[in-house]
What does this fold into?
Amino acid sequence: MADKSIGTESFATEVKKKVTKKLRWAFIGTGGISGTHIAALRHIPEVEIVAGCDIKPDRLEWFKQQLEGNLGVKVQIDTYPDSSTFVAARNAQQYDFYLQGWNGDYNDPMTFFELWVTGNGYAKFMGGYSNPEYDEMIEKAGASQDDAERMELFGKAEKLLLDEGGLVPLYYDNSQIYVQGYVSGLSMPMFGSDFEFSRVKILAH
It folds into this structure.
């Protein structure tokens, strides 16, 4: 749920309480959906997908087909007229589930794990998840100089985050980039910007 982290049993109970209500999912970019609690969603008679105006219609239609085909719920798609109204609703956590994508900024697991730390500037984008135990593990990982210890802490933090439904990965993007043979020096970093043009040269052709 958007306002708290709850276990599977509690989640099912909360869902049943909302059986006469419409479940609102907010979509922006790519991201994850709670597979851990998916069975509980069968108690919801109608699901409303709310999306920003920049979301491709075919992506929304795919989610609609998956929800209707696998859960038997009726799905309605509503799109915000502009990004500002969608962002306002997102930041106010006016949804039950929220799909979000994220690209790493630097080559370290912390670029992802810090997103769910209580009080982090990105927390409002991540459903408001908060857990002191998670915070403590990420703080220790940030301070440690021991790679093995850091990986162990990240592993435990990941398990906690997934067990509590704070995040469930859905898929990752895969892109194919085609470059003409006369373009030299173009690089596509794994982290940060999509392209690095500082060393690009156009060769005679």
Summary: Confidence is low (pLDDT under 50) at residues 1-21, 28-38. The first helix runs from residue 8 to 17.
